[in-house]
Amino acid sequence: MIDRRSLLSSMAALGLTSTLTTNAAFAAVPGDRRLVVVILRGALDGLAAVPAYGDPDYASLRGSLALSKTGANALLDLDGFFGLHPALVNFKAYYDAKQLAVFHNVCTPYRDRSHFDGQNVLEGGGLTPNMMHDGWLNRALVAMGGKKGVEALAVAPTPPLVLSGKARASSWMPDTLPEPDDAYFTRVAALYGNDKLLGPSLQSAMALRAQSKSAMDDPSNKNKPKADLMPLFQGAGRLLAMQDGPRIAVLDPSGWDTHVNEGAGDGQLARRLSTLDSAIDAMKIALGPAWKQTVVVVATEFGRTVKVNGSLGTDHGTGGAAFVLGGAVSGGAIHAEWVGLKPDALKDGRDLPARSDLRSLFKSVLAEHMGVSRAALNGSVFPDSGTVKPIKGLVA
């Protein structure tokens, strides 16, 4: 007897999964646009990624983590007040090319300090933890209408919450186990191919496997360490570039929880930022001409404390940084309602306050780039969010 568990086991052996929803809605992405959502799990230090070096209190409060405009590992100046971490060299090039918009002291409605709850609100799009049981990007896919084919892809073992829900999405990861031979695939197809429920999902999974195998057919990837983000972003870019490939992708690299030995211009956070910067640029190259139709959103669940802790790191905070970049972005701008770093300006005397709502950023991209209606954004995608206005002119 064919059952769901058997099929999932077979698909896992293929190195990929595909969500099985009998009432799936397929996403109709307008035109030929691409959207990539990158979730930095662990709460990126926004004041490290985007140092407010022009604030008179910045250097003294940041202490050993302060970045300078001069000397070794100098920050990359943006506007004489804000800069970028020196590891974000490609981000700086995007900014100069007006393909990067920077957001500061921004956060979801969540105001506590639990990673689990913060990521739940970030991905669910609600007001409180566990308010939503599916993701805002999946609900946006439903709002885009119906279209046959695989349109949304999670570069992860299973779709994260932001991409989970009624609309169909697939998952893909580079192979970590020995590749089964072609005879195995033939036997699996013969076993499940005629099943009305599971057969179409298997066919979809096999098609995606063929695409991913082609996308990853690059000898330069074979000697890269597994922890390297490059194969994931490069593979996603190649899949998105394909004529019949997905048009939406989600990546969620972890490792941004820097309580200990965070480092300033060099160190663990610098290495992580450099890896992300290089990986996104590899995705840009893999996208080729499709980069012009692409928007990449980079967000995290909350910020970190302004002051350095006793372990030379930073603790969970509130206001953080986010980025919107890509060939379809109207960038070269910093969006920050800066209130300074004086103790009375900080939340609880320790955090950057959140002066902007991340949902405004998400709404702008979904409306201007993906054509989601205002009614859907305010109602189903981000419930009861009518007072949260999109940012106009974020997409070219």
TrEMBL record:
Record's keyword annotation contains Nucleus: no
Keyword tags: Signal
InterPro entries: DUF1501, TAT_signal
Pfam families attached to this UniProt entry: DUF1501 (PF07394)
Source taxon at top rank: Bacteria
Secretion signal, residue range per the UniProt entry: 1-27
UniProt name for this protein: Uncharacterized protein (DUF1501 family)
